Prior knowledge:
The structure is a single chain. The chain has about 200 residues and is mainly β. The protein contains one helix and eleven strands. A hairpin with a 5-residue loop joins strand 1 and strand 2 (about 65-70). The longest helix is centred in the middle third of the chain and has 6 residues, at about 110-115. It is elongated, with a radius of gyration of 18 Å. Residues about 1-35 and about 185-195 have low confidence and may be disordered.
Amino acid sequence: GALCCGLALFTFGCATAPETEAPAPAEAPETPVVQEVQEVQPAPNSKASVTTKFFAKNKLGQTVMQYTLKGAGGVVMDVINYGGKVVRLYLPDKNGESKDCTLGFNDVAGYETVDPYFGSIIGRYGNRIANGLFVIDGVTYRLPTNNEPGGIPCCLHGGAAGWDTKIWNAQPFQNGDTVGVEKGGEIIPKITDVKR
């Protein structure tokens, strides 16, 4: 059986429109999201499973949920809907003992204050856009910069408010020995679709 892992777990939609040089109008603050705990019934005769539990509240008071995905072969992954972050990934060694092989935090505060994108869905793009500027069809777009390698201001991994900082509306699923989490309803305003 297979365990859907990493970005393949999340076929979510989440992004805000690029910022241009003109300031955008102020938006109302997001309403805290409350997500119901949903249990997925294991497939008959399968060792795979997916469970959902409360992880924490973020600094905005939004509920962060944790999804534990267990593969039929012994791989276990904990992923949260805050940035689609892989919190823990247990892989069995040659003796069948499982060890966590990821870097992560046991609380949301670590991700909100010192997170270097550990296990996150990054985006709207990966890597850096030098000087926070790019041009499409003759239109120059200015992005906020959040990184300065070599003294060059850049917009890194979607900026300070990239996908790694968003609460995703996630729905766990199981299909035989395949388990995962996929896009549910959209939470964040001004969404564009993301496809894997």
